[in-house]
Each structure stands twice: as C-alpha cells, then as structure tokens.
Amino acid sequence: MKTAEIAQRYLDFFEKKGHTIVPSASLVTDDPALLFTVAGMVPFIPYLSGDVPAPYPSAADNQKCIRTNDIEEVGKTPRHGTFFQMLGNWSFGDYFKEGAITYAWELLTSSEEDGGLGFDPKDLWVTVYEEDDEAHDLWLKLSSLPAERIQRLGKDTNYWTTGLPGPAGPCSEIFFDRGPDYGIDGGPATDDDRYVEIWNLVFMQYEITNVRSKFEFDIVGELPAKNIDTGMGLERVAFIKQGVDNMYETDQVRPVLDKAVELSGRAYGANHEDDVRFRVVADHIRSSLMLLSDGVTPSNDGRGYILRRLMRRAIRSMRLLGVDGPSFAELFATSRDAMKAAYPIVGTDYERLSQYALAEEATFLRTLASGSEILDESVAATKAAGDAQLSGAQAFLLHDTYGFPIDLTLEIVEEAGITVDRAAFDTLMTEQRERAKADARSRKGQLADTSVYRELRAQGETVFTGYTDLETESRIL
Ligand code: ATP
Ligand code: MG
Ligand code: MG
Ligand code: MG
C-alpha cells in the first residue's frame, strides 16, 4: 500500500463518517514563536481553544509537519523524520472518547477490501492514562483487545496540557508490535523499538488551573465542549504496511536513499553507520525540499537557518559516505519525483527550489574543502606527536578563520579517534567575544559564516507560549 493510498483511505474513511476534509496548512506557521507546524493540531488551535467557533463539527486532514527536535533520532530509530505527515481527525464538541476509539479501531482493523488498513488486531496494543478508567473500559468494550494489551501509563506520556490554565486531558496511544525480533515482550510501556507508536488520541476533557508545572495542576472541572484531537503518523503506518523496516524505506523516501547509495558506490545494509547516513540524507533532502516548497529559503536565522542546517547535515553525511563533490542536483530531483504526485508544487516550482539548494551546496562545499584540509593536517600532526587531543587553538583557528563549524570539527576529530581540547576552545571563544565587544570594527566583514553558528547558540530555546505541549522548535541542531 503506497503512502498516498494510506492517506486517501484515512480521509475517505472519515469523510464517510461525516467529517469535513481540510487541506494541509503550510509548514510555516503564522505564529512567529512557533517556527513550524509540528503537529496536526497547530492549524486548529483557535477552534480547540474555543477562541474561534469551529466552522464544522468534525474534520480530518493530512498535515505536513516538521519536527527538528527529533533530528538526533533520524536514521537511528525506524520512526522519526524531520518532515512527516500527520493524519488527524478532529471533533469540536461533537463526538468524544467513544466515537474516537470506535473510529480508530474500525479504520485500523477493517479489511483492505472494505477500505480499512487491514491491521491484525493481534499486532496492536494501546496505552491509556493511568486514571482514565473510562478510556480503558471503552477499549475493552469496543475492540477485541485483551486487558493485557491495554497498558496504563502516567502523565509524562499519556496526558496533554498546554502548560497554561485552560484545556487539558488524557491521551490514548495505539502501537504496532513488530514482533520478538525487535525486542522484549513487555508492551509499549517498555518503551522499546519493538512497539511503534502509530496513533495518538487526545481527549480534551478538563479545564485546569493553578498550573505549577506541565504535569502539576488543579482540575477546575469538565470543559463545556469536549474536543478530540488525533494524530496518526502516515510514514509509520506506511512502513509497517509496506513490510519494510523503517520510514526511510517507504515509497516517498526510499528513492532518495537509493540515489545516495548509487552516488556513493557503497552498499545499504552493509555497515550500520553508513546506513544511518543514508537515512539521514534521504530524510533531510526531503525535508529541505518540502520547506523550500513552502517558501522557506536558507538564511542565518529562524526557519531559514533550520533549512540551511538540514542541507548542510545532508552534505556532511554524503561526505562521510565518500562523496566529496556535489550531489544535490540528483538527490533533490529524485525527491521531487517521489513527492510530486502528493505535492504537485515540488514539481511545478522545482526550478526555483533547486536553485536555492544548489547554491547552498556550492557555498558549503567550498567552506568544507578549505576547512577539512587544514583539519586533516592538524589531526595527523596531533597523532604524529603522540597526542590524543587536538588543541583548542587549532579548533578555534578553523572556526574563526575558515568558518568551519565546531560541531563538524568535533565529529571529524572523534572519527579520527582523538578528542578536542574543548575547554581551551571555549576560552578562546569567550576571549574573542570580549575582544569583539572592545573593538566591534575588527570583526566586521570577516566571519560571515561562523556567525551562523554563534547566532543560533545565542538564540537558544524558542518558547512557544501557547501550546507548550507541542514539540516546539527548541533544539539546536
Ligand atoms: P514518539 O513517541 O514515537 O516520538 P510522539 O509521541 O512524539 O511519537 P505525537 O506527538 O503523539 O508523537 O504525534 C502523533 C503521531 O505522529 C505519532 O503517534 C506518530 O505516529 C507520528 N509522529 C510523531 N513524530 C514523528 C516523527 N518525527 N516522524 C514521523 N512520525 C511522527
Ligand atoms: Mg516524539
Ligand atoms: Mg510517544
Ligand atoms: Mg504520542
């Protein structure tokens, strides 16, 4: 079952159940504090909060999402992409727990011939919030799940709040069991890669006040209009239905992975580290393409910086796969071909998108070429001298003079089996900042590239003051 077909089945199912089908919102939010649409909920916040009356009692959609706070997981777990699509069904004071659970179970387990997703009930587990007896009992009543496969978990995983007074409520999550080859038999509570979370049902039920922390608050009472918010990971369902091991091997992503394999001349499946790199390339190229198609362009701050960083990480990964020259022309064109059926804009606007990608690649390859050469020499000299640590001064020189980012220095040096004198590097950085303050002019015009990294570090966490439970774009890549 192709990814697009799964999405269509989802939307058709909910349309038959009376939901209004809503197109995906942009990856770029209206809210400057929230860089990207990180969940299906984002465009519905005004309706869910009650600020704006919902124009329909229930809706369903397939929302494009970006979560850079999952970036470290990409390629290592089977299930985390920086770009992914979240299917969702929404009730604004219409149906509640019973309806949401009934629909979820029916869509997942009805046969493919009947328009369902054809999951075998034996492969499914659910979790409920530990005090949510109602959800627990509804699952027992409405599904064929035995009590052992309905696990009760705490607020950290199974409760949704905004971190502010207002709506809140328990969640119930649905997991697919990949089987004993992938881990022990303890259910999702064991938090193992064996159990893949595919769908989260949020029951917005209470009004809370006196919020002391995200999970310490007082419940004022029941909300007058209870809402349903659900999110199903399209790529996760796709990889399970396609019988492959992870989301990077699904039809919308795998062609890019294969192209990277071809360009590198290395095999996929031969070496774990290379495999992670192939998956990172496939993920980041697609995310970059989708960001470009929503109007983001590479820059030194905010959204543009995230895009720049994704592209640079892809380039770095290709280098680690032995490809020193340009590869974006082929990688982006491959991603375009895999995505344009679902998102025609990536085809029609490709000329513009690819120009940004190619320019970014050319610039970064120049930076890398000069920096890498010097770094390799320094590493060789360090080793020849019998030292296990590259001096802070060397790392600083690379950063300061050649615009070679410290994170890359750390990575390359570590791969060579030695370390960097980080404390000395930090001291030099501090001294430089002080010098710069004393003589702002001396810095002008010289550090165009390194300023990117400095700015981001200074930027720190982006706090989304509304719905802080959403995974905000807080991570520094
Ligand atoms: P996980 O615990 O696996 O990181 P999550 O609890 O963070 O997932 P939710 O915030 O509940 O995920 O999002 C709803 C659904 O979106 C998840 O059940 C999952 O199917 C999907 N999803 C979440 N994050 C990603 C991601 N980075 N890549 C692909 N799908 C995702
Ligand atoms: Mg997560
Ligand atoms: Mg989870
Ligand atoms: Mg979840």
From TrEMBL:
Give its E.C. classification number. 6.1.1.7
User: Subcellular localization, per the record?
Assistant: Cytoplasm
Keywords from the UniProt entry: Aminoacyl-tRNA synthetase, ATP-binding, Coiled coil, Cytoplasm, Ligase, Metal-binding, Nucleotide-binding, Protein biosynthesis, RNA-binding, tRNA-binding, Zinc
Asked whether the keyword ATP-binding is assigned, the reply is yes
Cofactor stoichiometry and binding remark: Binds 1 zinc ion per subunit.
**Which reactions appear under catalytic activity for this entry?**
tRNA(Ala) + L-alanine + ATP = L-alanyl-tRNA(Ala) + AMP + diphosphate
Q: What class of enzyme is it?
A: ligase
Which molecular-function annotations from GO does this UniProt entry contain? alanine-tRNA ligase activity
The source's superkingdom equals: Bacteria
Keyword presence, Cell division: no
Classify the main location. cytoplasm
The Alanyl-transfer RNA synthetases family profile domain covers 1-477
The cofactor required is: Zn(2+)
What is the annotated role of this protein in its UniProt record?
Answer: Catalyzes the attachment of alanine to tRNA(Ala) in a two-step reaction: alanine is first activated by ATP to form Ala-AMP and then transferred to the acceptor end of tRNA(Ala). Also edits incorrectly charged Ser-tRNA(Ala) and Gly-tRNA(Ala) via its editing domain.
Domain description: Consists of three domains; the N-terminal catalytic domain, the editing domain and the C-terminal C-Ala domain. The editing domain removes incorrectly charged amino acids, while the C-Ala domain, along with tRNA(Ala), serves as a bridge to cooperatively bring together the editing and aminoacylation centers thus stimulating deacylation of misacylated tRNAs.
Q: Which family does it belong to?
A: Belongs to the class-II aminoacyl-tRNA synthetase family.
Name listed for the protein in its UniProt record: Alanine--tRNA ligase
Gene responsible for this protein = alaS
Q: Which residues of the full protein are shown?
A: 1 to 477 of 888
